[in-house]
Write a structure and sequence with these properties.
elongated, three-stranded antiparallel sheet, TonB C-terminal domain-containing protein, disordered N terminus, alpha+beta, 123 residues
Length: 123
């Protein structure tokens, strides 16, 4: 019986908080975000190769705010500004996280692996 009570508690907690969700999931967001990056941003300006972590808030309206990108790259501020521009071009909005039935601001972390023939080998 203790096990079923424990499971019940977990289910109760799951009902009080729901993560922010993008229509189609994180994979759909990443795909659409990458399309916007490659459509609008000249990645040749930056040494962008390998894995990058995009950290941002999803506000109570489902909009992306406070974007940061790690690791930092050459011209990091310009790169982050360009990524902000691209992320705003994503058509669908996030469904905000919900706590006790009310929308709340939440943090999202999306990892993207950039591969590019413009990688600076340091030669």
């Amino acid at each position: 019986m203790g096990y079923s009570q424990e499971s019940q508690t977990k289910n109760d907690n799951a009902g009080t908080y729901q993560n922010a969700e993008f229509p189609g999931g994180d994979e759909a967001f990443t795909k659409e975000f990458l399309q916007m990056i490659y459509s609008y941003i000249d990645l040749k300006k930056y040494a962008v190769n390998g894995k990058f972590v995009f950290v941002f808030d999803v506000n109570t309206s489902g909009k992306v705010e406070n974007l940061d990108v790690l690791p930092k790259v050459k011209n990091s501020e310009m790169f982050i500004d360009d990524m902000r521009f691209a992320i705003k071009k994503v058509k669908n909005k996030w469904m905000p996280a919900m706590k006790y039935g009310n929308p709340v601001v939440s943090k999202k972390i999306i990892k993207i692996n950039f591969t590019s023939d413009h990688f600076d080998h340091g030669d």
